[in-house]
C-alpha cells in the first residue's frame, strides 16, 4: 500500500460498506461517496460520455499488441504471458519503457496516460499491472477529454469496496486516495492537519498525511476506529463540507441510475444520502435492483449485471435525478432525518460493529469550520 494511506481507517469503513446499496451503514444512517465528492476531491470531470465500452478479451489482447507493437504470447483466449503481459494485465514500468522506445509521439502519450490512470484511478491489486480496459478509452485521443472519468473512477471504487466485503478478501484497490480524502472531509475526528489551498484546487492534496505504521500498530488503530465509529452520532459528521449547494452547483451528482467503467456497472442512488446535499433524510422509496447479481463467498467471482437500458439513463438527466422540494426539504440542522427514518433503518441494517457490552470510547469532538468560512479564510490569506 502507498505510505500515505491509513489501511486501518480504510478497513474500518470497508466493514460498513453495503454493496446492495453502495453506501456505508453508519449508526445514524447511510452515507456514500457521491459524484460531487469526486469533483471536489480529485477535480476530474464527472460530466461527459459514460464509459461503457466493454470489448471481448480477445479484442483487448489485440489492442495491447497494437499499442506496444509486440506479439502477445499464448493463443487467443488464453492467458497472457510475456515481458509485458501477465495474467491478463500489462506491466506498468515495461509499458512506460516501451512507449519511450517506440519514439512515436501519439503512442508515447497514450502509454503515459495508460500508466497514469492505471496507477491512480483504476489501481489493480497487484500494484504493478494495469487493466487493459483503460486503453479502450485512450485509443482515440480526440475523445479522451469528453469522458466522465470521475464517474468511471467512482464506479470502479464502488466495485472494489463491494469485493473487499467478501469472505476471503484480504485487500482492496481502486482510488483509495479518494476514499481516504472523503473520510477526512466528512469525519473531522479522523482528520490530519490541512494546508490552505486555492478553492478550485483538488482537495485531496490539502491533507498532510504522515507515514502510517502497519503490524500491531495498525491493528490497534483499527480497534480504536471501530469503537469511534460505533459511538458517533450524526452531529459528528460534516455533512456538507463543500457548502450546501452541492446539488445545484453540480446537477450530475443528483443523477439516479448506473455509473460505469468498461465491464463494471454499479448503481448510484443519492436519495439514500440526502443529508450530504443539505436536505432532510427521508426513507428511500425503492432500492435499485440489478437484473442479476452473483457474489459468492469466493471473492474471485463478482458479477453485477444491469439491464442494457440502464445505460441510457445517463444521457437523460432531467428525467433521472433526485427531485428535491428546495424549501420544504432543507435541513433545519445538518443531521436531520424524518421521524420514522431511524426506525426504518435499524430494521434493515446492523449499524454497529462492536458488541455494545464491551464498552465504548470517549470522543474528543473538534470545532468544525464550515465550507463558507474555509473559502473566506483561503481567499483572505491569498489575496489580502
Question: What is the gist of this entry?
Answer:
The chain contains 13 helices and twelve strands. It has 384 residues and is of the alpha+beta class.
Map the helices and strands.
Elements: H1 7-14, E1 17-18, E2 23-26, E3 29-31, H2 35-42, H3 57-68, E4 85-86, E5 89-91, H4 92-102, H5 105-118, E6 129-130, H6 133-136, H7 149-164, H8 176-186, E7 193-194, E8 207-208, H9 215-231, H10 246-249, E9 257-261, E10 264-268, E11 292-294, E12 303-305, H11 326-329, H12 341-346, H13 371-383
Question: How would you describe this structure to a colleague?
Answer:
- With 384 residues, the protein is an alpha+beta fold.
- It has 13 helices and 12 strands.
- The chain has a 3-stranded antiparallel β-sheet. It has a 3-stranded antiparallel β-sheet with strand order 4-5-6. A two-stranded antiparallel sheet has the order 7-8.
- A hairpin with an 8-residue loop joins strand 11 and strand 12.
- The longest helix is centred in the middle third of the chain and has 17 residues, at 215-231.
- It is globular, with a radius of gyration of 22 Å.
- Mean pLDDT is 84; it is low at 374-378.
Amino acid at each position: 500500500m502507498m505510505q500515505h494511506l491509513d489501511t486501518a481507517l480504510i478497513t474500518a469503513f470497508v466493514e460498513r460498506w453495503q454493496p446492495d446499496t453502495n453506501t456505508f451503514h453508519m449508526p445514524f444512517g447511510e452515507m456514500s461517496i457521491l459524484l460531487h465528492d469526486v469533483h471536489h476531491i480529485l477535480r476530474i470531470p464527472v460530466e461527459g460520455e459514460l464509459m461503457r465500452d466493454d470489448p471481448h478479451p480477445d479484442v483487448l489482447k489485440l489492442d495491447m499488441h497494437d499499442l506496444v507493437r509486440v506479439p502477445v504470447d499464448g493463443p487467443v483466449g488464453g492467458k497472457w504471458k510475456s515481458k509485458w503481459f501477465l495474467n491478463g494485465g500489462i506491466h506498468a514500468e515495461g509499458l512506460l519503457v516501451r512507449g519511450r522506445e517506440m519514439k512515436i509521439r501519439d503512442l508515447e502519450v497514450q502509454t503515459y496516460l495508460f500508466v497514469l490512470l492505471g496507477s491512480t484511478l483504476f489501481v489493480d491489486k497487484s500494484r504493478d499491472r494495469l487493466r487493459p480496459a483503460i486503453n479502450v478509452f485512450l485509443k482515440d485521443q480526440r475523445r479522451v477529454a469528453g469522458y466522465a472519468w470521475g464517474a468511471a473512477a467512482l464506479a470502479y471504487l464502488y466495485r472494489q469496496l463491494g469485493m473487499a466485503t467478501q469472505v476471503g478478501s484480504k485487500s482492496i484497490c481502486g482510488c483509495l486516495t479518494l476514499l481516504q480524502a472523503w473520510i477526512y472531509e466528512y469525519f473531522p475526528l479522523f482528520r490530519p492537519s490541512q494546508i490552505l489551498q486555492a478553492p478550485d484546487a483538488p482537495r485531496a492534496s490539502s491533507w498532510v498525511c504522515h507515514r502510517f505504521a502497519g503490524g500491531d500498530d495498525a491493528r490497534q488503530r483499527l480497534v480504536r476506529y471501530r469503537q469511534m465509529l460505533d459511538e458517533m452520532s450524526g452531529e459528528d459528521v460534516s455533512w456538507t463540507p463543500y457548502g450546501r449547494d452541492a446539488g445545484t452547483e453540480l446537477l450530475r451528482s443528483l443523477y439516479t441510475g448506473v455509473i460505469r467503467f468498461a465491464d463494471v456497472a454499479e448503481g448510484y442512488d443519492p436519495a439514500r444520502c440526502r443529508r450530504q446535499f443539505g436536505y432532510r433524510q427521508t426513507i428511500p422509496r425503492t432500492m435499485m435492483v440489478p437484473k442479476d447479481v452473483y457474489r459468492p463467498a469466493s471473492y474471485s467471482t463478482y458479477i453485477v449485471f444491469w439491464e442494457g437500458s440502464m445505460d441510457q439513463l445517463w444521457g437523460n438527466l432531467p428525467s433521472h435525478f433526485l427531485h428535491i422540494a428546495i424549501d420544504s426539504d432543507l435541513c433545519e440542522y445538518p443531521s436531520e432525518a424524518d421521524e420514522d427514518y431511524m426506525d426504518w433503518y435499524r430494521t434493515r441494517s446492523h449499524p454497529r460493529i462492536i458488541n455494545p457490552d464491551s464498552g465504548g470510547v470517549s470522543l474528543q469532538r473538534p470545532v468544525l469550520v464550515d465550507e463558507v468560512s474555509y473559502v473566506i479564510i483561503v481567499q483572505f490569506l491569498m489575496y489580502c
